[in-house]
Batch of 4 targets.
Target 1
Amino acid sequence: MIAPAAMIVLGSILFASAGVFAEEQDSALADMARGGNGHWGNRVNRLPWVVHRFGPFISLTVLFWVISEVRKR
C-alpha cells in the first residue's frame, strides 16, 4: 500500500508543478498578445501566477488527490 500512495503523492507534485508552470506561460502569452513583446520591463514580475504560486499549487495538488480517489472507487 505504500508504493501506490507514494506514486499518488509524486504524481500530484508533478501535476501541480506543471499546472503552475502552464499558468505562468499562459499569463505571459496573454500579456504579450495584448501589449506586444517590446515593453515587458517589470510587468513580468507582477503577473498574478508569478506572484501567487502557492495557492494554485495546493489547489492542483488537492484536485489530483480528489480525482485519484474518485477513479480508485
Note: The CA atoms of residues 22 and 49 lie 10 Å apart.
Target 2
Amino acid sequence: MGCVMQINSAVPNALNTSLQGMQRSSQQVTTASETIARGSVGNGAHNVEALVALVEGEQAYGANVKAFATSSRMLGVLLDTEA
C-alpha cells in the first residue's frame, strides 16, 4: 500500500512537470518565431540561432506531450487498479 501512495503522488507531479515544460517550450517557440519575423536578411547568424531555438522548442514540446500522455495513462491504470 505504501508503494502505491508514492506512485500516486509521483504521477500528478509528472503531469505538472510536463505541463510546465509545454508552457516553457511554447514560449520558446513564440519568442523564436517573433525573432525570425523581425529578423533582417543581413543578420544570418542571429536568424540561424532563432531557427535552432524554434526547432528545439518544437521538439521539447513534443517530448513533454509524450511524457504527459504517459503519466496520464499511468494515473488511469492506478485508478483502475485501486478501484
Note: The chain has a mean pLDDT of 85.
Target 3
Amino acid sequence: MLLYLKKVALSTTELTISDFLRTTRVPLANIEGVRMNFFRRGTATIYLKPSCIFGDEIVFAVRKRFFRYEPIVEELRRLIQEINAQNNTEQSPLS
C-alpha cells in the first residue's frame, strides 16, 4: 500500500510536505540528505533533523522523465550542499 508516500514541493526557502490530509513546511536547513531508494523503485527519501509531524524520513514518489528522474532530487542535493557550505563559512574558529 502506498499510504507512506508524501507529496513534496520545493520553494527557495522551504520544503512543503503533505500526506493529502495534513501539510507542513520545513526549512531547507533542516534537510540532512536525500537519496533515491533502490528497493522501492520510483521513490526517494528525504532525511530531516529535527523531525516534522511526518517523522524524520519522508518518502515520496519520483516520476521518471525521458530516462531521468524528476529534477527535485538533484535540486535538493544542490541546495543542501549550498546550505552546508554557507554554515561552514559562518562558523568562526575558536581562538
Note: The first strand starts at residue 7 and ends at 10.
Target 4
Amino acid sequence: MASIPKNAIKELFSKSTGLAITDDGAELLANMLEEEARKISKSAVDNAKNDGRRKITKDDIIRCSSKG
C-alpha cells in the first residue's frame, strides 16, 4: 500500500488531465511515484555524501534528474 493518498493522486490526475482515475489506477500510480521517489532519494543521498554533507539540498535532487 502506498503512502501517497489515493485522493491526492485522483485530484492531481483530474486537474492535469480532466479525466477521472479508478481507485486501483490511483493506487498503482501512487506506488510507481513512490518507487521513483525512492530512487531519487537514494541518488540525492549519494550526491550529498560525495560532497561530504549529511543534509540533502535542492541541488542534490536537481543533479539526480541530470543523471537519467
Note: The mean pLDDT is 94.
